[in-house]
Amino acid sequence: MVVEEFVYLGSLIHSSTGSTCDISRQSAITHAAMQSLDNQIWRSRLTISTKLKLYNTCILPIFLYGSDCWTISKTDARKIDALDQWCLRMLLGIKWYQFVRNDDVRRLTKQPKLTAIIQSHKLTLFGHIMRMDDNADAKRILLASRPADWRRQLGRPRITWLSTVQQDLKQHYLTLPEAAIWLRAALCGG
Known about the structure:
Strand order of the largest sheet: 1-2
Radius of gyration: 20 Å
Order of helices and strands: EEHHHHHHHHH
Largest sheet: 2 strands, antiparallel
Strand content: under 5%
Distance between the termini: 55 Å
Number of domains: 2
């Protein structure tokens, strides 16, 4: 019997090897957690700073669990930021029919975008792996080259974790080799 998907250590592993299913699952769990606290916390008279502290300590870890290993497409990023906006609007008590711009919600809460938090976690993991010993399994797997007889499947290439890290580094004007050299220099102190 072949299984299409299963939950392992809290993450949904799907046969497509993508992260979209896990992102959807974590979004649903986060959405349910936000709704369960609606009457007790979000609609209460607590200050916004207290609500944000609760959001950052109780709600965000639910969504961010395992996010440093996700390969996020543009569609996934839009869904993640939409969930983030929905959570912040619920926290502030903003109804769907009120015309409040997303920028105003960000300004009121001073919260970074959820995709930016995920990007930070991903780059932290990348730095951790790159500082490992060259014989460490994680580093060898990450930097392994393809076999000489390997051929890519037809169609659009799949998004890999390393390609998303390269995109994230590009936003900081770094390439993968430059980041590796910089991390080695930072580790050696020179």
